[in-house]
Amino acid sequence: MKPAERFFRKYFLAMVGIILLFLSLNAGLLCSVLLWAWDSSNESEISIYAVRDGVAVDSAGNLTTADGLEEQLRENQSWAMLLDEAGDVIWEERLPEELPRHYTPTDVAKFSRWYLKDYPVFVLEHPAGLLVVGAAKNSFVKYYLTYKEPYIRIILAGFTVMVAVNLIAVVLLIWWNMRRVEKAVAPILRGIATVSAGQPVNLPERGELAEINRQLNQAGAFIVKKDGARADWISGVSHDVRTPLSVILGFAGQLEDDQSLPAYAREQAGRIRKQSEKLRSLVADLNLASRLEYAMQPLRLGPVYLVELARQVVCEFLDGGLEEQYEIEFCADQKSEFVSIPGDETLLKRALGNLIQNSIVHNPQGCRIAVSVLCGENCVRVEVADDGVGVAAEKLKQLAVGGRRLESTDERLNLRHGLGVLLVRQIIAAHNGTVAMASEPQKGFKTTLTFPCPVELRRN
Fold this sequence. Notes:
The chain is an alpha+beta fold. The chain contains 12 helices and 14 strands. It is 54% helix and 17% strand.
C-alpha cells in the first residue's frame, strides 16, 4: 500500500472511530443520568402490599392493625384507608382531615389511577374492601398513556431506521470529504517523496492548495539546480586540479630521485610527493562519490569473485611498500572461494581499498589489519577489522547514520574518513549490499560488507 493511501485509510478509520467513541460516550452519559435519577428517587417508601398484610380481618369482620404500621406510614409520610362496598371508610390510619370519609363509585374510578385531591394514591383489593394508600403531595408523578400496538412498533422501527440512516450518512459524508482531501493532498505527498529523492516535480498550481504546490515545485527545482551546480563544481575542480597536481607529482618525484641533492631536500620532496598522492586520491574519491550520488557512474557489471578480489587488494597494499608497523592478514572459508556476485570489480576494489587505507591512516602508531571473506546461509560477507585506536561511540554513530550525501565535511567528522565511508556506502548500495560498523576506543574498528547470496549458491 502506498504511503498516501495508507495515510488516508488511517484518517478514515480514525473518523469512524471518533463516531463510535461519540456514540459510546453519549450512551454512557445517558445510562449515567438514568442511574443518577433512579438513585435519587429510590428513597424508602412503604409498600402497599405491606399495608395490606398489616391490616387483618377476623371471621367476625373486625379489623386489627399490625404493630409498627402506623410508624412506617409516618416515616414515609403516607396514609391509608379501607373502603367497604358502599364507599364508606371502615378503617383509616393518618388519613388527612381534608379528605372525605365516603366515596361514590365515580369518585373511586377517578382517584384509582390518578390523584385524590392532589394526593397520589395507590389502590389494592383487600378482603375487607378496597385498600387505598396515599403519599405526600408532589412526591409522585402519575401518567397514563395508551397507544395502539402497531403505533408503538412503527415508532420503534422508525427510530432504529433513523439511527442507521444517520450513521450511514455520516460515514458517507466522511468518506466523500476524505476523497476530496485525498485528491488535494495526495499529489503533495507524492511530490514530497519525489523531492526527497532529489527529483523535480511539476504539480498543478490550482485549487485550495495551489500555494503549497507552487512552493513545492520551486523547492524541487531549487534542489535539482543546487545539486547540479554542486556536481558541476566538483567535476570542474577535479578536472582543474588534476593537471597542476600531475606537474607537482612529477617534479617531486624527480627531486626525490636526484642523488645530487642533499638528503634533507630529497626527504622533503618525498613528503611533497606523498601528500600530493593523498590529495590526488582524495580528489578522485570526491569525484567518484559525486558521480555515484547523482547516478552518473555506470556500473560495469560482471561476475566478481570476492575472495580473489580481496586477495588482490591485500597484495597491492603489501607490494606497495607497506610500513613495518602495519600487518595485513587475509583469510577466507572454503565455500566462499567459489562464490561470485554480479558487480563492478573496479568499484568494489576501491571500496575495499578505502577501508584498509582508513585503518592505516587512523592508526599512525601501527596496527594489525584482518581481511576476511565468509559465506553465510543467505549472504556473503567481507570483513575488514583492525586492532587500532578505534573511535568513540558518538563518532561511530555519526559514521553509521551520517554518510549518505556529500555534506559530510570536516566540521562533523574527519574529511578523509567521512568521505571514505560515504564512498564505501555508495558503492555497496549500488551492489544491493549493506555496510555495518563496530568499534570501541582502543579496541579497534571493524567494517562488515554484506552482499546478497547468489541464487545458485542458495539452491546448493
